[in-house]
Each structure stands twice: as C-alpha cells, then as structure tokens.
Amino acid sequence: MTTRRTRPAPRPPEGTPPRTELARQARAVLADAVRIAHWAAGTPGPGTAPLAAHALERAATALELSPAQVRAGWDRARLAGLIELHGDTARPGWRLRAWDRDDSAVLRGWVALFDAWSLVHAAPADIEAGAVAEAVEAVPQVLSLLQLSAGPVTVPALLDLLGQRVAELQEERCEVPLGPGRTAPAPAETAVRAGTAESAAGPARSADLNALLLDWALEGLAAVGALTLGKGHATLTPLGNWAVWVKLEQICVAAQSPAGNIEQSAADMLLGCARLTPGPARAEYRAWLAARTVGSAVAELLAVARGEDALLRGLAFEALRVVGAPAEPEVRAVLAEPSLRPYALLWLAEYEGNDPDDAQEVLSREEATWLWVDTAAAVADHGETGLLVRHLDSAVQGTVPALLDEVRAVGHPRTVQVLVALAAAHPDPALAKAVRRAAFQVHTGGA
C-alpha cells in the first residue's frame, strides 16, 4: 500500500481537437510517405536511402509522383518508422501495419517525424555544424513560446528568444570549472578574450546567423506539419500545439515526482525507476528523454550500460526501447562489445518486429548463458534471495550441472559472486554445495 497521491490525468489545452481528428491530420501529413512505404515494402530490393536511381524512377512511375516527392516521402517514411531497412531490403514497420486502425500508432509516427524536423529540412550548406546544433537545441524554447501564446507569434519575438537561448548555451559551454591550483581569469583577461571573439566574428554576424537559422527551423517545422507560416509570424497547427503540450506535460510530470528524475543523470534516473512497474517506468523514461536531445540521451544510456551494475545495464536497454528508431544505429554499433551484445541483439530483434517471447532465439547458447549470469548479478545486487533461486528456471541448459559447466566457461566477470550468492540462497544443501564448488573452481582457475 502507498499513501502517495496520484496526479490526475492532465487534459490538453482548450480547443485541442480529439485524438481521432489529430490522427486524421497526421495521416494527411504522411499520406505520400505511407504510399511510398507500402510500395517499398511490396517491391523486391528497392535500395537503400537515398533511393537508388532506378528505384526512384520506378516509384515515381508507379505512384504518379515526381522524383522529388518520392525522395521526400521515402525519407519521411523512414523517420516516422513506417519502413525499416535491412541491408537492401525494405520491410514494413509495425506502425505501417497498424496505420489504418490505430490512432495512437499514427500519432507516435508523426511525433517521430516532428522530432526529426531538422533531418527533413536540411540546414543551409554554408552554416557550420556547431551553429546548427545550437539552433536545434534552442528550438524547444521557441516552440514553448508558440504553444503558450496560443496564436500567431511575430518572427522578431521568436528571433529574440532564439538569440537569448543560443547565447545561454554558448555561455554554459564556455564555463570551465576551477580545479586545484587554477584561479579565475582576471577581469582584464576576460575582456581581452571577449574582445578577440567579437572582432573575429563581427558584432552583426550573430544576429544575421540567428535570423537565417530561425528561418530554416520554421520552414523545417512547417514541412512536418507542426506550424504554419504567415507574413512575419508563425502559428502552431493543432498537431504541433498538441505535440508541444505533450512534451511539456511529460517534463512537468517528471519534475513533480519525488525523485525528480528529469534532473538526474541517466544512472540515477534508472535507479529511481528500478522498483516501478513497466508502465510508470516507461512514462519516466519518456519524460527524461523529452528533456534531452536524442543523441545525448542515447549516448548517456549506453555509457551507463557499459558500467559494472548489471541492473542498470538491463534498465538502460529498457529505456532505449522507448527511444525506438533513432537509437538503432547506436545499438547496432555496440554488437561488437561482449557485455552489451546480448542486450543489443534482443533490442534489435524486438525492434524488427519479433515477439519479445521469441526474441531469445536470436542469442547463441553462449550469449544466453552470459545474459543469465548478468541478470543473476543484477538480482544478487538488488533483488531478493528467492528471486535468485527462481532465476535458475530461466537458464537454457535445463539442468544445474550443465548450467554450471557453461557458466564456468562463459567468462563473465561476476561469475564467482553470482555462484556464491546462489549457493547461499538455495535451500537444497546438495545443490548449494555443487554451486559453491563451481564458484571455488572459477575463483582458483580449476576445471
């Protein structure tokens, strides 16, 4: 029993259309992408992105679209999770299969596209990547102003806010913590540095660059259906207004939680979610992710997964399941790391549409044994002794002697600790003795 009060389900802002209408609008935005996804999923070897020239021509002819429309729709279909590429083969994503019957799948697909607006509308080629990244990081504040204003906002007001946020980001990155023996720079030194930077960049360059970046961001957000552009002003569409409200609400929910998980590092956030049931845990993951860029969040979660705490390793991949498609390249890249490979294989199997109950089949016997030991380490560190005993039933070997033989051979760094904990927890004296003997053999290097 708990005395914690539950927060009532939040209601969207007044005037927000019902989900059925929002889903209809999302389907309209992605109509060409859906057509192209169906075509690609049913056509052998459509090629990788960008579409090969012959596939582009075939798609344009079959769908009666221009090559530019096909190319744009192809990119949107991939970003929205409507199609998945496996080598040179395009497969329908689960969202495409549910597209006509599941409004939630449609809205999630559109939000994935909304989150990827900076990929849909390429940045001007003559702007350096750092400036583009700062603008992308500042856009959520621009969207918040548009959402809170509940109507048109002038471009000068948006430009002022963008400039302020970019300046804040630059100031945060320039802060150097004072270490031992390091003193703060003298005022004269600071002034010289500032003057040097200003003379190099020019005082007017920043404002002009911000204006160019704002135009690019507004055009990109308009391209995905999040806002409309008028003469000198911008207005969120119902879809855009709803999406920004959802993200702000996720942040508020997490900020009001006792642990304040949104402000925590990935490791502390995962520990805070460790005793939650899957639904509330996923809500916490989403809120934490919404407050960060996808790239930095995925990198932080994988860094935690590489640590020594097996519980956090498993939870990190649970959080990565919430990230979905944007995490795929990074997850695929860690397949070469033995400690992460079993988790990455299971993640990719589920991402590719396999039933979670059948996903274990992608693991070799050695990988399954390694994962068994890693999970047992998590239970030994954070769980109850009874759970560790029951964990024996999940081993693929079927018998304890076979399990002990393969556990000794798999080389997991926590093997000894796991076997000692299992021996101490198991009620059968004979079995406990065999497990202790195996632990001793691993410890001493014996056979």
Q: Could you explain how this protein is built, in words?
A:
64% of the residues lie in helices and 4% in strands. The strands form 2 sheets. A 3-stranded antiparallel β-sheet has the order 3-5-4. The protein has a two-stranded antiparallel ribbon with strand order 1-2. It contains 23 helices and 5 strands. It has 447 residues and is mainly alpha-helical. The relative contact order is 0.06.
Q: Can you tag this structure with a few keywords?
A:
23 helices; three-stranded antiparallel beta sheet; 64% helix; 447 residues; mainly alpha; two-stranded antiparallel sheet; 5 strands
- Terminal CA distance: 49 Å
CA-based shape: elongated
Radius of gyration: 26 Å
Q: Strand sequence of the main sheet, in spatial order?
A: 3-5-4
Query: Largest sheet, described in full?
Result: 3 strands, antiparallel
Average predicted confidence as pLDDT: 78
* Structural class designation: mainly alpha
What is the helix/strand order?
A: HHHHEEHHHHEHHHEEHHHHHHHHHHHH
* Total of helices: 23
Which consecutive residue ranges, at least 5 long each, have pLDDT under 50? 1-8, 45-50, 175-205, 254-259
How many distinct beta strands? 5
Helix content: 55-70%
| Percent strand | under 5%
